[in-house]
Write a structure and sequence with these properties.
The chain is of the alpha/beta class and 335 residues long. It has a domain of 233 residues: Aldolase class I (TIM Barrel). Helix content is 28%, strand content 14%. The protein has 11 helices and 12 strands. It has a 6-stranded parallel sheet with strand order 11-10-5-4-3-12. A two-stranded antiparallel ribbon has the order 1-2. A hairpin with a 2-residue loop joins strand 7 and strand 8. Helix 1 packs parallel to helix 2 and helix 3 runs parallel beside helix 6. It is globular.
C-alpha cells in the first residue's frame, strides 16, 4: 500500500489552497550564500532547484524584512528591488520543477551586530536584556563577533516594523513565492517579544500573554491585509531556548503549536502522517546533504551525511562547496 506521506494534500483554507502532491517539506535553513547586498545569485537558484520536486513544498531560508532586521552577513533580504529580482530566478527554478516555495519573513532583533545594521546602529529587542550568557557570535563582514546588548524598541517604532513585515510579504509575492511564513521562533525578534525572559516591558507589548503576543498578531493582520490567508503561515518554537530566550511558563504563552518539525527520519515521518498526528513533515539538515531527499525517503535509499564544516562558509570561500555539490543518489551509485 502506498504511504500516506506521498499522498496529495491541500495546504491552507478553502479559498485558494496550495495543492501539494506529497507531504515532505524542506524546512528553512540559513546558509549565508549572499553578499552584503542580500541578493540571491545563481548558486542560490541552483540549490533550491536541486531540492524541488513536483508538487513538493520548500520553505526558503529566513529572509530579512528590512535593512534594520539584519543579523547575519550573507543572509538574504526582501526589501530592495534587486533582492526581489534575485528571488525571481529562485522561484522560477523551483516552479520549473513543479514545486512550490514559501518565503520565511525574518527580523533578528537582538541577534545582530552594529556592523550588520545601517549606520552602525545598536541591535533592538523587546527589552534591553543582557547578552553576556548567550552562546552565539554575530556573523559580520569582519568575522564572527560577540553580540552587544540591545536597546529596547520604543513603542512608536513598533508600527514601522509591522509595516516592514507587510511590505516584505508583498515583495515575496511579487518575487513569485507561493506564500510566506512569519518567523516567530528560534530566539529572534518576535520570540523575544513572546517570552517573558526577554520581554520585560510594562506597556501594551509586555506583561500578559496577550500583550506579549500583540506584535505577532499585528504583523499577521498586516500581512493578511495584502496576502490571502491560505498563503500565510507562522513558525513557533514552543519550549525552545535558542539564544537564551526563555519563559517561566511556556505552556501559557504557547497555547497551541502551529508547526512542530524536528528530528524526524523517513520511517518516523511516514508514521506520524499515517496515524494522523500531522499533515506535513518538514526536514532541514537531511535536505542539506541530500538534494533528492524526497526520492530517497520514497525508496528507502541511504542518506548522505552532512559535512558540518561547510554548512556555513568563510567569506572568501566558494558558495558551491557544501551547498550545491552534494550528489544525487543516482550519481552516487553509478560512480
Amino acid at each position: 500500500m502506498a504511504s500516506k506521506l506521498f499522498s496529495a494534500v491541500k495546504l491552507g483554507g478553502k479559498k485558494s489552497p496550495t495543492q501539494l502532491k506529497h507531504r515532505v517539506v524542506m524546512a528553512p535553513m540559513t546558509r549565508q550564500r549572499m553578499g552584503d547586498d542580500g541578493v540571491p545569485g545563481p548558486a542560490v537558484a541552483k540549490f533550491y532547484k536541486q531540492r524541488a520536486t513536483d508538487g513538493g513544498l520548500l520553505i526558503a531560508e529566513a529572509t530579512n524584512i528590512s535593512a534594520s532586521a539584519r543579523g547575519y552577513y550573507g543572509a538574504p533580504g526582501l526589501f530592495t528591488p534587486e533582492q526581489v529580482e534575485g528571488w525571481k530566478s529562485v522561484t522560477a527554478a523551483v516552479h520549473g520543477e513543479g514545486g512550490k516555495i514559501f518565503n520565511q519573513l525574518w527580523h533578528t532583533g537582538r541577534i545582530s551586530h552594529p556592523l550588520n545594521l545601517p549606520g552602525g546602529a545598536q541591535p533592538v529587542s523587546a527589552s534591553a536584556t543582557n547578552m553576556d550568557g548567550v552562546q552565539s557570535l554575530a556573523t559580520t563582514v569582519e568575522g564572527r563577533l560577540p553580540h552587544p546588548n540591545p536597546r529596547a524598541l520604543e513603542i512608536d517604532e513598533i508600527p514601522g516594523i509591522v509595516e516592514d513585515y507587510k511590505r516584505a510579504a508583498e515583495n515575496a509575492l511579487e518575487a513569485g513565492f507561493d506564500g510566506v511564513e512569519l518567523h516567530a521562533a528560534n530566539g529572534y525578534l518576535l520570540e523575544q517579544f513572546l517570552l517573558n525572559g526577554t520581554n520585560l516591558r510594562t506597556d501594551k507589548y509586555g506583561g500578559s500573554p496577550e500583550n506579549r503576543s500583540r506584535i505577532v498578531f499585528e504583523a499577521i493582520e498586516a500581512i493578511l491585509s495584502s496576502v490571502d490567508s491560505s498563503k500565510v503561515g507562522i513558525r513557533l518554537s514552543p519550549f525552545g531556548t535558542a539564544f537564551g530566550c526563555t519563559d517561566s511558563n511556556p505552556r501559557e504563552i504557547y497555547d497551541y503549536v502551529v508547526k512542530s518539525a524536528s528530528g524526524y527520519d523517513g520511517a518516523e515521518a511516514r508514521k506520524v502522517v499515517e496515524d494522523g498526528t500531522t499533515d506535513l513533515v518538514a526536514f532541514a539538515r537531511d535536505f542539506i546533504s541530500n538534494p533528492d531527499l524526497v526520492e530517497r525517503i520514497r525508496t528507502g535509499a541511504e542518506l548522505t551525511p552532512v559535512d558540518w564544516q561547510t554548512v556555513y562558509v568563510p567569506l572568501d570561500a566558494s558558495y558551491e562547496k557544501g551547498y550545491t555539490d552534494y550528489p544525487f543518489h543516482a550519481e552516487k551509485t553509478s560512480a
